[in-house]
Write a structure and sequence with these properties.
Alpha-Beta Plaits; 4-stranded antiparallel beta sheet; about 120 residues; globular; two-stranded antiparallel ribbon; alpha+beta
């Protein structure tokens, strides 16, 4: 069984939801993660706050957050165990992040010490 990272991409991280909406989304996300964990296929994950970010570029140029360059932001990730990328995609389809228009979940296999294949 392989591990896959599900990366939550928000079309516009500068849009701020109300505290009530954030609570609803957090509950939905915890319920979604709970269904994956109940199958013993949840490996971990974290949210990534939109503030406090820095970007380091070529020649050690440092900027505050990615927001000046792109609207899309990464809001968090989870790592799941799956027998195939298709199974990991099925987990991703249930992610509450997808309720936001323009949002997406990127599914990538995590390379272990044996290389990428």
């Amino acid at each position: 069984m392989d591990e896959f990272i599900l990366i939550f991409r928000h079309e516009d991280g500068n849009k701020v939801a109300s505290p009530e909406q954030l609570q609803i989304w957090m509950k939905q996300t915890m319920d979604w993660i709970g269904t994956i964990a109940a199958q013993n296929k949840f490996s971990g994950g974290n949210g990534l706050p939109f503030d406090g970010a820095k970007v380091v570029r070529h020649n050690n140029v440092v900027t505050n957050g990615p927001f000046g360059d792109i609207k899309e932001t990464i809001g968090g990730y989870v790592i799941v165990k799956a027998n195939s990328v298709d199974e990991a995609v099925e987990f991703a389809k249930g992610c509450p992040v997808l309720q936001g228009e323009g949002n997406s979940v990127e599914v990538r296999k995590i390379a272990k010490g044996d290389g990428i294949h």
